[in-house]
Amino acid sequence: MRNPHDIIRKPIVTEESMNDMAEGKYTFVVDKKANKTEIKNAIEKIFDVKVSKVNTLNMTGKLKRMGANIGRRPSWKKAVVTLTEDSKGIEFFEGM
C-alpha cells in the first residue's frame, strides 16, 4: 500500500471550498493515479475521520503563452470528500 501522504497532495482553500465545509465536504489535490478507495483510506488514516463519499474530477491544465510559444500547465486531479454526519470535521481547516 502507498503512503497516504503521497496520495493526498494538498488541500484546496478557496471561497467555494470554504462554503462546502458547512456541509461536511472538503477538497484536496490528489495523485492522478489514485482511485476513490485509496483516497478514502488516506483521508481516514491522516485525519482520523469517517468518509461517506468521494467525488473525483480530472482537471485539465490551462494553456499559457510566453510570446509566440504556447505551453500548458500540468493537469491534476481534485477530490471532494464528504464526511459522515457523526464525524467531527478536519481540524486542519477549522482555523481558516
TrEMBL record:
Gene3D superfamilies: 3.30.70.330. SUPFAM superfamilies: Ribosomal proteins S24e, L23 and L15e (SSF54189). GO terms for biological process: translation. InterPro entries: Nucleotide-bd_a/b_plait_sf, Ribosomal_uL23-like, Ribosomal_uL23/eL15/eS24_sf, Ribosomal_uL23_CS. The keyword Ribosomal protein applies. GO terms for cellular component: ribonucleoprotein complex; ribosome. Keywords: Ribonucleoprotein, Ribosomal protein, RNA-binding, rRNA-binding. Belongs to the universal ribosomal protein uL23 family. Part of the 50S ribosomal subunit. Contacts protein L29, and trigger factor when it is bound to the ribosome. One of the early assembly proteins it binds 23S rRNA. One of the proteins that surrounds the polypeptide exit tunnel on the outside of the ribosome. Forms the main docking site for trigger factor binding to the ribosome. NCBIfam families: PRK05738.2-4. This is Large ribosomal subunit protein uL23. The gene is rplW.
